[in-house]
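Two records follow; treat each independently.
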Amino acid sequence: MSGNHKIAPRPYQLELLDAAIEENTIVVLGTGTGKTFVSVLLIRELQHEILGDFKTHKRTIFLVTTVPLVAQQAEVVRSNLGVIVGEFKGDHKIDSWSQSMWLSKFKEYHVLVMTAQIFVNILLAGFIPLNKINLVIFDECHHATKDHPYAQVMRFFDPSLSDQLPRVVGLTAALVQGKCRAFEVEKRITQLEKVLQCRAQTSRDLVTVHKYATRPDEHLIKYDSSQDNQDEFINVLTMPIQFLAEFSKGSKSTTYDYVKDMLVDCNHVLEEIGSSILFDFLEKCLNDLEMNKRGVCKGSVDEALINLCCTHLLKFQKLYLKQIKSGMYVTSKLKGLLQILEDFGIKNGESGNTGGSVPARDKLCGIIFVQQRSTALALAQVLRILSNKKRELQYIRCDYIVGHGPSQSHNGVIAKMADMTTAKQQEVLSRFRSHKINLLVSTSVVEEGLDVPQCNLVVRYSLPGDVCSYLQSRGRARATNSQYDMLVDDKDAHSFRGQLGDMQAVERLLERLCHGRHVPDVGDDESEDSLDDVKSVDEIIPPFLPHGEGTQIRATAASSIQSLYMYCQRLPSDDFYHPVPIFRISKQQTSFCQDSMYGEVMRGSIQYQCTITMPISCPLLDPILGHPMDSAKLAKHDAAVEAIRLLYDAKELNDSLLPISVDNIEGTNIDDMELQEEKKIVDAGTIRRKQRYQIQGAQLLSECQPIEKGINYLYMMKIHSDDDQSPHSGEEIRSYGIITSKVLPPVMLNENDVTLYSGNKKLKVTVHQLDELVKLDSTEWNLIMRFQHVLFDEILCVKGSHFEFKIEQSLKRYIVVPITIIAGFDPVVGLIDYNLMQNVVHNCVPVKWPCSPSEYVNSLVMVNHRNDTDPDRGFRRLYYVTKAHADKSPRSSFPDGQGITFQEFYHSKYNYNFTDLNQPLLEVRYASMRLEHLTPRYSQSSVEEDVAQKTQQLFPEICEVHPLPGEMYNRARLLPSYLYRLESILSAHELITGVKLSFYGSDTSFKSPSCSLVVQALTLQGAQDSFNLERLEILGDAFLKMITTVSLHAKLSATTPVSVLTCRRSEMFSNIRLYLLAKRKQIPSKMRSTVFKARNMWIPPGYKLKDGGVGTDNEQYNSQMLPDKRVADCVEALIGAYIAAGGVAAGIKFLEWLEFFEVKPAGGKANASLPLDPHQILLNGNALEECFRSSQSDSQSRQPENAEAEKKLFAGLDRFNRLWRFHDQYILLQALTHVSYSYNRITGSYQRLELLGDAILDYLITTHIYCAYPNYDEGKVTLLRSAIVSNTTLALLALVHDFHKAVKHNSPKLFAKIGQFCSASTEVVNQLKIWFGGNEDIVCYELDDDQGGEDEDIDMLDAPKVLADIVESLVGAVFMDSNMNLATVWSVFEPLFRPFIDKFSRKLPVSPVRRLLETDIGSTATFRKHKCADQDVECVVKIKGKGIVVSAMASNYKAAKKAAAKKVLSQLM
């Protein structure tokens, strides 16, 4: 259990909170142990009495002793509670306010924070009766003595009217004020209790309190003032002071006090600091004396006094200038301080540091306490001077702070120079909190109350005068490994040691006297260290035997407490709470004899009874009551045995009485034997395991062979481009078509146009069914078969040694034929071009020389005067004739500029002589042989296409005209790509049809996706197609996470541990399970994972692999290797396709077909009509509510004990009506309850709703991005979504809308963390509130694109995850309360997320870590993680070769890593 105390809620705070709820209490806790936290919790528990109109409700008063504390304590309450807080201090003529003015303030505010005197004035005037106050909190209540305003307030409390008086709570770290000896302590405590009508209480568990209390290393640092050698200087100032003391026996005047204060002030600086710093102040003192001299009468006593002072100050100046030649003279006391600072700097690595990184926890954060204001000013000034001169002190950044009121002692010129306004105080404190200064010289003003950082060095330059000063100044040394040093003169060391011993004795006595003061005898034997022998406990308390006598398994009294803690370790926890059982001991005195289960109890004996409260995440929500016992120790162990028995009965412990692990809880694992076996295989379900799958084509294509002499169907390909002109009516257009014996699905004709690319030109290919039914005779059949073979084998050269043309055995039994289309008819008229097929099959050349030159244009030619075979591909090159020049012939000049003719060039180059010197010149370009047209070729053209753009000059005599026209050749080159896509679309159609048919006879009204969308979902990124599954996968993944969470949330009972929900959810949509489900449905056989290469991996229609050719050479044609992870990705993409087309209902139907759900969801039909907005389609319908309504069970709600308890729990929740008017208030209560809040025994914590809300929010944001930004690739979608739903974004949203003020928790660490985050993000939050207020033109700088470098600043804020959890749990609560209506949830939360969506969509955020790694030196950066003692995490970044070493700290490693990376980037700029 050691090691958990730092994150657990502190039980002693809850103990004191309970006490304060029950009776008036003085909370006695040391600095750093959370007194303020207890007071905030108390206000929250009683807020139901103040949230409402002042006529029917009361108000809370928070009293403080100083003006600066008003703002500080008000901000603490305001930042953590949803109450309206007012601040009142002695300005704005508040003392003259009338009763009506005060009544208006009490109506306006729920909590009023003020200085005590203001409240005294209110009570004296009778403005507000005490029965309208529910609680009065006295901060630093030890001041309530004599006539202090605290004591005056309590004089209005009439004990006889206790039922009409407010609850009183005092907060203090030291019960006594002023000097006090040990024998006086109890009397002082009793007096304070009597004044405040309270009982002083600290926790019974002092061991635990001490773990959190301040315990720095204390040292007495001695110095020798006899070595100062300042006697001559001191005599110059003491002589007039002694004279004035004699003079005071006569009459005094204002001038007398003025002169005396100045001399005493100067002498104090001289003795404390040294003559050098006093010399620097003398000029100002003399000037001030001269000014005052002008206002007195000449020859008067006042003038003589001023002259006396001037004379001695001038004498001091001369003496100093005479004796001090160079350097600075300081006292031995100051030397002692400087040595402390130098030693601290050396120990922590700051002294003389030349740039190396010093961990943040080791950097100086210190306070030096002095007695006089003049000393504070002078000491701060000398330290600033020395830090600029001494290398060892260069790390010091110093300032001072003093009170802002009049000095209680003297008020000399130097002291007046040190005076501070409240604003100046706040400025200095702000700089100290932000570490812009690291050393603060202070009077007693920061000993108590004011909020300062945890210091690692506190020095008492002036010794503490009493135990209160000692305890409170020591309490400022709250950091880990801090030190508390006290400077003492050697001659006073012995006497001060005695005083220090007395103060420490008083401290111990205070602990003992307040310990269990309300029940003096309880807890004398509470410490586990003082337990009697374990055997004696077991002898008194019988064990719990779950299996009866004679078995070894048992829960003994000695072991049960440890077992309880072991069980609690299994319960849900977070960074701010570690669940522990809470033990409460009560004492009762019997008035009669009775027999207990352990023996007879005599009349008048004392009995102890223990009550155990388990964490709210435990099913045992009722308090567990033990039997009355003879001691508190026995009562605690007896109750623990009873708790073990109840846990066993609740099936929280197994048969061995051990906590049941998540894996062993019923319902955690899916009942799928194959899945459980697969999980045992290494790398199963990951990207690392690849398996081979056979590629399956569309079933239709293997059954559609045209029938000779039978009826066949003719389909025509129509190719469109953006620059095509409409053909004239009757004009003939040539294209290609396909003949099948089967009718193609209608969707092929209506919804699935195919996009192809010719170079950079975009083409759209559509399919049209021609009305004519085709009957083929034997001649036509043979011609068509021959043409198919020539087309793919000889013209397109899609021939491989591994396959052959046998249509009756092919898996693609359709035929490709040329078609002549006659334009201008509707429907389209087209005929099979048998003449063209005859020419191609029999190599009949349609054009021969001599003929008209224009007949060559658009022809396809080959050359015969040279070897023109492509060396890589083995076939003759083809050329496309673009122009025929009748005015040019072989006699024309060759365009090389050398004056030769074409005839001469061909003769010299190829030894060829033209026979016809009058033939025209043909201009040709290379006819590309590229067959891959699925993607554009924007980036860079292939060599082949570069060549195609170049023109060449040929003559008819050397050209062999190809029987296929050029335009038909170009269209033929599109065929492999088009047919490959057609096959994919038909395969997708069969999948869609299969899903539909599985619901035949039930609900088939859901809308299916188009075939093209399913093809996209089946296409991996590795296929390098114009589309891939990545965007759809993100959409499907978000839906799968959401639907799985919703189904489990509905299926499993409300008492099911969140860990079980999480594990079950992870297994349900794990990659390994999705891969298995896909494999069972043969989805991998339909996937496309490789780049389309017509000549290397595609089998043309009518062809088949040769018999016996199933070796590795053929695997590229009929199989593919797929990683398990990619198969799972494909499933998610298919889900995305279904929900993109048909919304939630379609997605659920697809999952049913996939057999994803173990139990089929309840009925529920899809909406027949869907909205037009794509995003609303994704949110549309009541499918979730209908499918999962039968087993909805969210709240484990129980009825409150009474109406008062219900008021407490629901106080302040009505504010959420502005967000959503909840029908079920209990679900709202659950959404705001942190696991640490033990008072809510009704609904449980928000963790279950947070899990649900996280999935819902992820889906809502993903679908919004998917629809709003269709051009975003998967990387941008992921970046934008991550930024919007990041922990910091959600936490900021919670602050903007004050959700954090309604969080119900009992975690001190969370209390502090929220406060820190509020302070760090104040400017961001304020500007966001302006945005939400309706002025969208005003956007905070963190949300302004023009502010360079600020994009990651939001994410750099160290946000407590609980705030993000609350937003997610509220999303889950609205979802459940709206009957699972996604559209409603989005309408509620979209306005809240709008500023973040707009910001991040304008400029996608990039993590500093990523930006660093993408720089030139990114590869040399190393990140190392270090765990700090205070649970923060430190990240150290080193850049090799650059000498850069940077560190940063945060509450988690991710935030620390970002901060460190940002520091490195700033150094590189």
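The next record belongs to a different protein.
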Amino acid sequence: MHALRQEILPPSGVEFAACLRFTPSTLSKGPSSQAGRTLFNVVVARSSLLRIFEVREEPAPVSAQKEDEKERRGSVRKGTEAVEGEVEMDGSGEGFVNMGTVKSTGQNGVPHSPTVNRFYLVREHRLHGTVTGLEAVRTVHSLEDKLDRLLVSFKDAKIALLEWSDPIHDVITVSIHTYERAPQLMALDSPLFRSELRADPQSRCAALSLPKDAFAILPFYQSQAELDLMEQETSQARDVPYSPSFILDLANDVDKRIRNVIDFAFLPGFHNPTIAVLCQYQQTWTGRLKEYKDTVGLYIFTLDLITNNYPVITAVDGLPYDCFALTPCSTATGGVVILASNSIFFVDQPGRRVILPVNGWPPRVSDFPMPQLTPQEQTRDLMLEGARFSFVDERTLFLFLRDGTIYPVELIQDGKNVSQMKMGPALSRTTIPTIVKRVADDHLFVGSIVGPSVLLRTAHVEEEIVDEDVEMSEGPAAVVDTTTNVDMVDDDDEDLYGPSADADNSAANGTTNGVSDSVRKRTVVHLSLCDALPSHGPISDIAFGVTRNGDRQVPELIAATGSGHLGSFHLFQRDMPTRSKRKLHAIGGGRGMWSLPIRQPVKVSGGALEKSSNASRTENDTVIISTDANPAPGLSRIATRSSQSDITITTRIPGVTLGAAPFFNGTAILHVMFNVTNVIRVLEPDGTERQSIKDLDGSAPRPRIKSCSICDPFILIIREDETIGLFIGEVERGKIRRKDMSPMGEKTSRYLAGYFYTDTSGLFQTLMNEEAPGEAATSTLNGAMNPGTKSQWLILVRPQGVVEIWTLPKLTMAFSTTLLATLDPVVADSLDPPALSLPQEPPRKPQELDIEQIVIAPLGESRPIPHIIVFLRSGQLAIYEAVAAAPPVDPLPSARSLTLLVKFVKVASRAFDIQHPEEEQRSVLAEQKRISRLLLPFVTSAASRQTYSGVFFTGDRPCWIVATDKGGVRVFPSGHNVVHAFTTCSLWESKGDFLLYSEEGPSLVEWMPDVMFHSHLPSRSIPCPRPYSNVVFDASTSLVVAASSLMNRFASYDEDGNIVWEPDSPNISFPHCDTSTLELISPDGWITMDGFEFAANEFVNCVVSVPLETVSTESGMKDFIAVGTTINRGEDLAVKGAVYIFEIVEVISDASTNIRRWWRLKLLCRDDAKGPVTFLCGMNGYLVSSMGQKIFVRAFDLDERLVGVAFLDVGVYVTSLRAVKNLLVIGDAVKSVWFIAFQEDPYKLVILGKDPHHCCITRADLFFADGRLSIVTCDEEGIVRMYAYDPHDPESKSGQHLLRRTEFHGQAEYRSSLLVARRPKNGDPEIPHARLVCGAVDGTLSTLTYVDEASFKRLHLLQGQLIRTVQHVAALNPKAFRMVRNEYVSRPLTRGILDGNLLATFEDLPIARQNEVTRQIGTDRVTMLKDWAALVGAW
């Protein structure tokens, strides 16, 4: 069998980050303009996903501030409002600092305009490698462009040097350095090693840690002089910014005591690159502390890259065994700070050590002398495992615990030496940290792999303190900023980021600056939240549920995600979630609908005075114009809303409407229609005709209009013979007239498509040609050179593929290109004169690569950016982002008077399988069935008050094109079979409504509330105070059963029930163990209806919904909830387990709740087991359970007990059970996968086959299609394998051995998977194919889809071509990335699973490259795109 593996959702979260000046936008100095300025870039990586963000400082949205303030004041009880500047208390009265929004004052108390710092996605790449480190470096070329470079390290010992390329608006690879053939990587245990990347602060070199205590050192040239010297020595020109790298063996080349490296870092302020290495010469663990303790050492040595000499300048031994991280101090302080599980160390260069214990364990596990502790410090009990830390100034560092709590730690200096360290009380609580990066002097970036990543501002403020103030004497100077001027997170997320520090203890002592006798000054670090990058984190379990979008039931993927206090449910849908608000069958609209805001003009002294255009922005729509093809020659309706909120049709007009829009500042309707002849009409607000222009050539009617574009005061019509007409409105007369089109060429010019665009972003800037004739130089209007003002543009497509952009109202060509029609990655102005139209004697037939639709529209959230969206007749959709371009170096040609300083960069593309009817079928019936595929821009304000600008694509592949700040452009299917017409509609006082004419007729719809678009699937997040390890959807009741995962204190007891050990000090705590609860959750509101608490030392392994035999139903079968648990009894007693059977029963609902039906969990049976019950599944009405090294098949007898009918001795630890009919697949942690059959007469389990090789399986599934069966497994390294059961193959030894057919490296293990049915269009509808949906621990959601033999051969050849002929980011090898090392076969088993990430790049290639790639493998691009379109999709 063959399959395609594709990632529906890429890895989630941030594991590595680099903060740098990477893109040219960060170089613009100066004050913040209206559009804001870019402060710096943040590059983040998780597994194989690399994202580049820019952090922009922008003026705060005033309206949102005022509304939040109003809501906040409304929720405060009267008489308890906070005085301005007073610290407010939170709603629950715990005294935590409220990080709300109050006035912001600058120096001398002068208020300045508040600003916010926001993330904006610049680029996103799925790499063919697993990232293990990111660092910013400056090379010799940085002297020229002032930009940093990016170093990326990968799992297979590679380092790539990347830089930003402005011409392609993307990253390019400077070089790649591979060490995978180094002797250190030849060891068998090298896959277990995790490499670390570090860079010298002065960018002189970078180091990558390798197995066997070695570093790969990559030196960089820092000046042109070094480069010139290298040229002379090697007598060859060198333009590369690095010198040859080498491998440094620490034990042999530096010091033999440096073994088992724990962490390392480069130190600042040294003449040569200097590295501090934390290592453990003699390894130990908790059980051997009597023999070996204090085994960690710190070694600081310098790298002399010229003489290859590496002297050790500091060696410190005797550090506690549990040290795990170090960070360098500033040059003013010197030394390093080391983090251990129970303490914090400071070690300076002479070797002096200062310790700060954070609990009572250090004196018990170490012989290190302890300092005197204050009574308050003697009660401190913190655990630093998983903690991260970073300096915020020279002497203050912030410690982030694994639960996100932030503690400030200050280095107290006695002269030049650090004498002690002080820890203050907790400041705040943020996300669970994975990496903490300091950005410049005033920001901290906290990345997390289990939840959102946050950007914090650390402002340094001088504050006066009075000597008499006693409370200022302890701890570091750091507070949570209560005067922050940034928008905090939503109310739902306050528990995630909200502060948890006591207001009274938030201030502390700093340095004394002797200002006067009574007043001293100190520098206080003010901490505030700037912005967050959303993330769902690791996927613990997934289940499909059924939800209601309004009155329509749709499938929804429920994922249990996150960890700790960031636990949540994420709900993913395949299509854009919308709900229907009302049906509007009366208005029709099968050929088009337009909802328009039209108002009455104000009469003054007999003349019409127009209101300002700003007033019309906030007005709601008043008129709906709809049109249908039936009855012939068509019918148009004008409808308004009556007082009863119903639709009233005021006017019916024979003919088909082709376009309608508000005109003359919204006081009239411009109506383009066809009724025997083309008519352009101006209508009054009530629908009566003011003016009508018939489109005639002399007295003969011109060909029918096929499309039009209206943008006050211009009208463009395109006829079926590809000629155009241009009209302009005259405000004074209130009428329209034809516009002169002579600058555009002769009257016979032909055009395929056209569109007007009004630019409000200020991005469309022009450069005048100084040498052009004088008249042409005046051809820009509305100050196109002046940003911040509106400018209008016309984009046209000629039949030969030339796309032109013209200025208005004086038609001057500003942009011309032929690259848009071939979908090139970057499109710039070719500076050609207006193209000539080719002679067309016979009527031109439409070509496959014709541009059928083109639109310029803003896409975005808080800062919409213009995008060109192109749809080709062949079914390809491409989206281009407008980017400011540098002025051309050469002068403009004389034929062009100006050029548009914009280039367009392709950011997304989609291929649809479009069927075109034969052109000869121009009958009336064919016209009725014609599907119009249009790109219709919209602006909507969702329920969350967030405004989105996007485009809707109508037709038989309807989809929404939206863009978000942190997610970029997304294309979501609408979920309809066909959409004939679309328009935004605020007729019912809502800016979030849309009118759709779908297969169900015309209806008013809206987006479902709280839906997020930043991910590749529309999703909703349900924050929970605890994480969930298992989730199951019960189909009979439509309820969710989930097992939460908590930590509980653990104590051991002897046989008499006496406690064996308990803490003897307040700073010593009990150990913790896992415990679980079972919860019954209603998806309506996500409230917990009922629960079941297990013992304090018992946790859930699996929860399944299984059909078992019962006497309580007519059918004899019923769904029950089965739970398998582990009972942890300490390290000297074997674990036990239990099986629980629950039934969901309906009870009388509480009258105080609004929920009509209430349910409870009823425990029917508890069956104790001698070992852990690790997995359960149902099979033919029986329950299959694992217990230790056995599996049991049990029947549920009389709804009260489990009776065993069969058992089998299997491997060591069962990790997966999956049954189909009477076939069972068992996954084991050691013995790989077993294939079992179950027979009932007599009861017996028969081994059909098993894998002869050992492998740690995390999940095993049956995968079937077209009458064939395979077994798909995943192991702990993320390798996906497909096994075949074939007794006729001699290698299988009569079926005893399963045959390993394919191995594919998925890079991350998945522990949850679902089988769903997939019905391909050309397949048998009765027997569906299986599709496997898998949720991985890195947040990836992937699918495995069956591919038939013919398609697989073509796609496999295409995959080979893409590996060889496409330049991949960071110069990585996709084939090696997916290849699995197998000692039992002569060549890797790569054939069988296609790489969806690699094949997706074919869709993004330009058409010429697509043709070139497919020609070499003997096929064509259309066939390949159809193969691809038939396979992609979520589920």
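Discussion point: Residues 294 and 318 are 5 Å apart (CA to CA). How would you locate this feature using only the token line?
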